[in-house]
Amino acid sequence: MAERVVPEGRRRRRRPTKQGAVLSERLIVDTALRLVAQHGGEALSVRRLGAALGADPSALYRYFRNTDALLLALADELIGRAQEGWTVTGDWRADLRAIGLRIHASYRSNPQAALLAAHRTTGRPHETRAVETILGVLRSGGFPDALAVRIYHAFVDQALAFAAQDAAALALPRAAQEAEEGVWHGVYGRLSPDTHPNIAATFRLLAADMRDSGYPFALELMLGAVAALRPATDGD
Fold first, then answer.
1. Which residue range(s) make up the domain with 223?
2. Domains contained in the chain, number
3. Considering the entire predicted model, what is its pTM?
4. What are 83-109's pLDDT values in tens digits?
C-alpha cells in the first residue's frame, strides 16, 4: 500500500461492494483476520483483500494508510476481543489473572495473526484501554507507580511472549505438529536412565505436561512474585 489516506470525514463508502456490503473499517479488519487465518501473512495484501471484499483495492486507502496500519488494526482487534464482556472486580490478583488469560486466549484463537502482530505496539483504542486498565488495577491494588509500571511491563511481555510461542506452534501444519508431539515419545521416551536419569524418572509427567501451554502456571508464578512485592497496607 502507498502512503496515502483519505480524511476521516470522506471515508465512508456509500455504494455497496459486489457482495452487497457497505465497506467499513470493521468489515476490512474482520475480512483481513479471516484471510490471514486461512492463508497466513501473505494474505494481508491490497489485492487479496479487495478481491475478498468485492471492492476496488484502492478503496482500502480510505481506511488504512498502508498494510502496516492495517496490521496494527488487526493487533488492536485481538486486544479488544480479549476485553469483551470483562470488567474489573477490585481484586488485583484475580483481575490480572483474568486479563492475562484473556489476552493469551485471544492470540491463541488467531495464531496466524498473532505471529504477525503479538510484538507490535498499536497505540489504538483497544490497546490504550488495556494499558489504562492494567495500570489502574495495579495502582488501586496498592502498588506504587514506579513498581506498577515495572510489573505492567513484565506482565504484558510474559502474556504476549507465551501467546506468540503458542501461536507459532498452533500455526504449524498438522503434519509438523504431529512430528513435534512424536519427539517426546520417539526420543525422550527412549532415553536410558543410565544417561538421562532425570528425564527417565519424570518422562510420563513431562510428556503429559508439554501437551499444554505453560502460560497459566507461569502466570501464577508471576502473580505470587508480584504479591511478595506489594507493600503492606492497613487492610492486609
1. 88-229
2. 2
3. 0.83
4. 999 999 999 999 999 999 999 999 999
